[in-house]
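FAQ: What does the model actually see?

It sees only this:
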Amino acid sequence: MDNLWLGYGYPNAPDTVTNLIAVPGPKNGQARLSWTAIGDTNGQDRVKQYLIRQSTSTITESGFNSLTDLTGIPAPSAAGTLDSMIVSGLTAGQTYYFAIKAVDTNSQTDSLSNVAQSAALSSSAGSLVFDDFSDGYTKPNGFGKDVGQWSSGGATIFISTAAPANSLGNIGGALDITYNRGTGECGYYSVLGETDLSAYKGISFWARGALGGEEFLIGLKSVVNGKESKLRAHVYLKQARITAAWQKIVIPFAAFNKLDPSEVATSGTPTNPLTKMENVSFTFGTQTASASGQVFIDDIAFVKSVPVVFLENFDTTADPSEGTHAAGGNEGDLNTNNDDPFIVENGHAKLTSTIANQGVFLTLLQFGDSTGLGDKTTPFIEATHISLYARGNVGGESLEINLQDKYNQSRAVNVRDVLGTALPAVWTKVSVPLILFPGVDMTFMDAVHIRLAEAGKIAFIDSIVFDDSATPTAPSNLLLNGVLATANAPLTTRNTLSVTADDGATDVSMQEVRFEYSTTGGSDWSLIGVDRDVADNTYQVIWVTRNIAGAPFYAAVPVNLSYRAVAVDVAGNTTATAALAASTINTSNVVVYPNPYYPLQGGKMKITNLSTGATVNIYTLSGELVVQLLDSDNDGQVDWTGVNKGGDRVASGLYLYEAILSAGRERGKLVVIK
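And it is asked to produce this:
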């Protein structure tokens, strides 16, 4: 067999990583690397280890050997899996270059990967990750401080690391809290250690419940005045409700009334409480509706802007008249005339006026409420607009938005003055700059009135928010397999798409980036995947092109195939990149592993990255057909156990394979060793 190895170059070096991507990491002085795992050509479905190295200048094949391996390099995953790691100890803001080589089970190394570069995260970025729970529920937290739990009055609490983790947020674990408050309270705390947060405007985190409907209080305490503010986290969600799905919650510091800079310090000197913060807490007590349950928390960060405060989206089957809206205040009929000018139907509000100026009122909470909580849910000084969706019943209706502060100063703006026309009969987004309400104190808001200015009219409204912009910034730097995407760039059967997306303050307003494709020239779009990563402003998905139903994908790409990335902010606003046309798919990446194949050790040889329904023929070197393998389950893969078409084991040696794909034929070699 030695001659066989010499004659055909065995052992073969492993494949080469070609899509290494580097982005700023989740914490100060960190970078995050990701790449698609490759196969070992020497009998395994993964390589033995990775060599990953860094430099402050570009890396060459010869220069790689003079560099030192990074610490914390992960064990390789199976071929085709997305691997990643966090690199720490970098100089914040410094640009670094990274490269990777793989080592197989015979200690052979592959060629140098593509060289990826990124600046290490600087705390001057738009968000500062406090704790991503990547190390689970352990001490210390992301700031190197203590964490813990408490209970009183018979309450019980159990905290662990969620499994699986929040795949929508950062990599790693998530906080898993099971609670039963009884007649007391319990909770989780994480120490800030007198951290100065005065450069930031709010706190964000991800949350979900085991069932949905769970409630808890988010608390912040300052060393400066020794006071703690707690408020209900769920009122800052679009539906004002924790659900069983992960949601991102962004809360302005201004909502915590005891963090007001005018608060007097314990020394008697007015000092901004945010300059020395003591802790963050999550409380389950008598002020929350759910007596017991299970919630998950992840990716706690401090942010430099608060993009949106939800007011109402009418996602309820009941008429909320005389009820409460998303921000916690009352809402109901405005100027009732023994009629019902405001009702909810089909997930939106219907306004009907029998007299002028009828509609809906929404009152806003200030400095606590009857439960004694010290929260302000209406700190709109960070917002620049009040936005809603509206349409007229027939078109031409005169719709007004009126804002009133607690000093009874009010101002109305007609939608006509914003749109330049009367209300149309189709759903239209109306975004009114708050500067159009002069004299109204936005920090002490009392009520929002939305009304029909004329009698005998009908209009519909939905999704009322205070936000800082109408739409998110369009994603940029769209990469296809690590290279800047261009029109008609060739696809492979497995592609990595990534973009940069933020609003100028990393991941503050960003909820997610959707990657989409179209086979209709852009008239309809289908989902490739979604990334909701909060660790940085780079979003990434894997696109397996054979998943496109009905596409003749290996003969040629579907007519008019194109793809794009869509930024989605926490208010649900979207902005897309320009659509890029796709080119013929490169089918040169059929993967065979393990190769060589040891049938007596058990297992199967896999031939993958095929078109669905493909046929693979295996031949001897003389051209005799050994066996024919069919992809009968249409999963793009066939298995071989080392037997011929008669069911007998084949001899050791070199064989040829031919994959018959939709695009044609692809040939290669494989080795069997007994």
